Model the fold of this input.
Amino acid sequence: MRRCISSLFLSHRSLVLLVMTVLLPFAWLGEAETSLPQLTQSELQWLTAHPKIVVGTVPDWEPISMRNKNGDLSGMADSYKNLIETKLPVTFVLAPELPWEKVLDDAKDKKIDAVLLLGRTDERDKYLLFTDVLVDLPYVIITSAENRSIRGERDLPGRRVSVRSKFVSQEWLESEFPDAALFPKETTLLALDAVLTGEVDAYVGSMADAVETIGKNRIGNLRVSARTSFVNHLRIGVRKDWPELASVLNKAIRDISPKEHNAIWNLWVPFHHEWPDSRIVYALVACLAAIVIVGLYFYAARLRKVDKELKDVTRRLTILSGCNQLLLKNLDEQTFLHSTVQIIKDLGGYEFVHVYGPPTATTYFHGLDGTLPTQETMADCPCNKAFSENKTVIVNDILQYDEKSRWRDVALKNGCKSAIMLPVMFSEKTDAVLSIYSVTPGMFSDKEIAILEELAQDLSLGVRTTRERERGIAIARRVRESEVGFRSLVETATDAIISVDSSGMVTFWNSSAAKMFGYAADEVIGKNLVVIIPERHRALHRAGLESVASGGVRKIIGATVATEGLKKGGDEFPVELTLATWEVDGEKFFTAIIRDISERKMAEESLRKSQEDFKQIIKNSSVAMALTDADEKVLLLNGKFVELFGYDESDIPNVEAWWPLAYPDPKYREDVKAVWNERVNAVICDKAVFVPMETSVVCKDGGKRVININFSYIGNRGLTVFYDLTKRKAMEDEILASHKMLANAQELANMGHWDMDVITGKGTWSDGSFKIFGLEPGAWEPTFVKFLGMVHPDDRKYIEQCMRDVLSGKLSKVEFDARIIRPDGQERVIHDKLEVISYADGKPVKITGVNVDITERKRYERKLEIANDDLKSALEEIQRGREFLMRSEKLASVGTLAAGVAHEILNPLNIISTVTQLMLMDERRGRFHDNLKEIMLQVGRASKITNNLRMFAREKKFDLGPVDVNALFDHTAGLVEHDMSLDNIFIERRYDSDISLVMADSDQLAQVFLNLLTNARDALKPGRGGVITVSTKATDDGVEFTMRDNGPGIPPDVMDRIFDPFFTTKEPGEGTGLGLAISHRIIENHRGTITVESVDNAGASFKIFLPKECPLSKKPDKLKNASLKGLQ
Amino acid sequence: MNKDVKKILVVDDEYFFCKILDKYLSRLGYAVIISMNGEQALEMIALEKPDLVTLDIRMPGVNGYDILEKLRLHQSPVKIVVISAIDTPEMEAQMKAAGASAVFLKPVELEEIGRVVKELIG
Done:
């Protein structure tokens, strides 16, 4: 019966599927040959150039696109791929299966040329070109069976909704229902699981993949709540830079007939749930249904008149069909019962339909309403009979039923005339009763009863199935969970885990095994394990297997053994293997846990080798060494040791033998031993570092050596190292001595040296340095800051600048002088020369310097400087005097000149003036009047200038000061001496060096000398030269100065007029006649005397006396400057 | 020779200046005689007995100062007017001390000389 109903429900779609499944390949072949799309020449060329197109697919999207374990594609995507390949000369190469997001990334990066069956979005438009639509996929909302609150997409806001991650549905929901909380999931199964677990309220996805996934995974308690307005139009996405491909694909797509589309759709989308054994059921149902339908139609034709009969049949079939439909809906038990009751009532035209439990049950399974039956009517209800007797009870006329029955009253009151009670067995016994009431008496004919009994059986089956399914789902989930747990454990294990059956065939192979041996799981599963066993172990392996299989117990089981494994490439490697055995259904299985120990082996090998190396190093070391074990037994004395001490292993078999040999003096030996034991113990027990010790060792030949002993404990061996310090000691002494010498030398030289660590600012000073600073050697720890503190405050800035220049790397060497103040307040001058001696990263880190006390040198320098200054000022003085004398002579000559010129000029001016005056007198109104006036004006001007000049020459005032007459005369004579020598006139000096200084106006006195010299020259010149003799003589109260020439002398008649003003023997213009007069006056002003003697033809002699003290003690004023100003 | 006409001796070694003074003083109505050196001048003073002498100082040989000294020594009544180019601070005082009635520095204002001469000898 159930089979008939199923076939009705499945209707024509099953048949089409059947037919199409069989016919489709032929249809494709037929069409492919006849209708290739028209491609242009360039398109063909392009396809020739790109024969292989890498295509990606949407992962885990049944039945649209999915892969099997081998990565083979199936689903609609595969069908369309194959179909297009028949229409175009292209080969699609499948890209490996990747998560969806990765597929899209690869498409972006053009690692994939095309993606099959995906929806178009704005985002994807950025990197893909889309073909025409291939499939329209309507989307639905899936909820749990109990959830009736979501009846359409309008109910989605505020709900938690699972979607396939990065699917267009996600984008659609985000934009249309931003208030819905989306839970993107990697696969449809996960998305549906989320609904089942209550993580979300609904799943929005395509009907096709939801149904497929529910069916395949035997998920119950879900239902399709509503369709959405969203339809996913699936296309092929093509990389953006290949429009040729997009256009070619479009041509192929347009070439696909509706028939072909339908065939593909029906191949993948019909209901073919993985119901328990459903395929067989359907197959049988389909066949039987066909027979029944045919039979019925024959029957109906034969009994055309029996219309009612036919109607009844149709009605009953409708009921069964409706109920059967429910069976296929995977509803939960309650919903299923409720829906069944509803369908029986509606489609069967009965009054009431109930399913209720046994009389002992406190609740009914299900009733249509509260009126029938009630608790109190149950007592005499015929259903009790159905329960107890486990058979159908029919009450064809309720009126005829036991009149006392309350059930009868209630039933009649509700207008029921007949009833049937059918036992329903959910388990081995009757669990419920399906009771049906009709308003028609005698409603339940035999045929009716038969159908209803069948229905009751279906109900039993449905509930049983539902229960089983639910139990199955729960179990499946538990199994899945535990399997997932186990798998993740096994897969994450670093050890290889391999199971084999008793024949040695591999049944399990985890990923570490794959990594370790180089075989992927599918390469070895089902194959013999020997591939990973080296040839020489195979026989043993087989023997072992056989022995265990035949009931023997192998020692190897449960133990860990070391052996070798064989990699795919043929390389052997050491492994550690643990074997376990287990039994299923009498068959023995083995599981091996294998660990790659090649690294450990290598480590062991390298340890052994390094120990050997260690020994070799010791042996060949150029330092004496002894290796001892924990018991102080000597393991090795190296060559250097024997060479150094003369003892070998035979002399020193253990440490104990060493002591009396090396240290014969008992007291010294005990001391050394005590220290040694203490320090060695510290190393061994406290892991301390050995503090080296220095001892004097007696060698075999009796010689003594100073030895530095160091000890280290490696593993459990003691390594003692002996450094011979004998030579170094000697060298150290030498260095010490040379240090001492340096110190002495520095001390003698008042020198010191120092160094400084730039980073710490600390350094060391030699004793000399401390001494320079007036400190006890080592008085304090020297730092730059302390040094600076001792520097004279005025010099600190400069030194800091020097240091900055050095520290910044600007200069590598600097020298400076600085004043320092010693603690006792004494100021010294030092000269410091510093230099950077080491750098790190281009920055100086260490500076050394030498300093010298140069106070004394500076002092002499200063003295020298002063002496120099004196000399300089003396020279300047001389220069000044020279300049002054030059000026004096100039003044004298200018004065003389001025007087002469004035006279000579004023005379002609006088004539011009007076003539002009006369002319003016004559020509008072004449035509020359103005010109004459002008002449007068000009004459006045000229005479004024002349008079000014003359006035200057006349200005002489006293400027008294102490004068060394000898020196003054020398200065003065120096001005003219050279000129005179040209005229063969020479000056002879006879100075008295004892003369005292006189108070005089040196300028005026110089002028006197100059006048006398000039006169003498004038007297000598015509006679072709001569000698001027100058002598000085100290007198009691002053100085006597004499100048004598050997010229013609002065005629006696003019002797007494010679000092008169304006007296001259010279031609007009040659002299003023004032020189001697002025000289006379100057000497008189000094309260001195000037006299003249003359011998005819033997020259003239002038004698001047100057008193020591000039009574005119006028303050000297700056006439020299005044006269200069006048000159300007 | 008219007794009322005053006689002036011009002593100067510059001939041209002598002529100018001659011309000018003549115009003023004086009788002018000229001497161009000191010795001659002394002779002419003794011989001609001028009322006034214009005397240059710097002259070769016997100079104006010598003449002044001599005249003062002989207590000569003749009026002396020194006309010189020499100008020292002491000169005027020196000349006046030596007997000069007036001192003029060259270049001179003729009219000034004329005024002073008139004052001295009318």
In short: Chain A is about 45% helix and 20% strand. The first helix of chain A runs from residue 2 to 34. Chain A has six domains: 36-254, 303-472, 493-596, 602-724, 730-853, 955-1127. The first strand of chain A starts at residue 52 and ends at 57.
